[in-house]
Amino acid sequence: MYDIILLVIYMNYEVLLESDNLKYVKPLYELIDEYLIMVNDKENQKYISKTYKEYSREDEEGWVKGKLESGCVFTILEKDTDKFVGNIELMDMNDETAEVGACLTRTMQDKHYGTEAEKRILKYAFEELKLKYLTAGVFDYNGRSLHCAKKVGFVETGRTDEEGMFGKFQEIHLKMTKEDYENMYK
Question: pLDDT over 70 for what percent of the chain?
């Protein structure tokens, strides 16, 4: 409990987006230790990277600095507790499209936060940024992420054979158009 109180006292942030149980803020230097736990967790990393890398504090500080300067990434916090949940990002964004990527810390998985965060980023992308379509890539052995993507409305558009730290696998390519979004959520 003491750690949570300290976290709340020292974190200074502006809430940019909200959903039922979550709030979305810019990346925070105060959460570097939490980010490092998440990205250096081999179980998490196998779902977001083809190769394993041990990230340093300096690496993560550089990541936060870069995302604050340019990027569309949100740190996700639980509304009631301010506990770190993960990050969600619109990558390779242009006037028409972006790729959605998310990673949740293991202690916050299996709470339906991934689905909630994906739905909120879809709303932001299509209603506020006026993007025409979104893409996502999921490794075939990441059943939880694939289920979440399809549940929120992404459809599979193809697969590519890949090889990484866990051997051969397929990357599943997914897409959602603004029309798909409007048919599902409007």
Answer: 94
Written as one letter, the residue type at 60 is E
Give the domain range for residue 111.
2-185
User: In CATH, what number is assigned to the domain containing residue 140?
Assistant: 3.40.630.30
Q: What is the DSSP string of 144-156?
A: HHHHHHHHHT-EE
**Can you give the pLDDT at residue 9?**
40
Q: Is the dihedral of CA 29, 105, 26, 111 positive or negative?
A: negative
pTM: 0.91
Number of domains, the chain: 1
Q: Is 76:107 a contact under the CB 8 Å cutoff?
A: no
Contact at 8 Å (CB) between 89 and 100? yes
Q: Which of 157, 156, 150 is nearest to 184 (CA)?
A: 150
DSSP 8-class letter at 109: T
pLDDT 10s digits, 2-31: 444 444 444 678 999 999 999 999 999 999
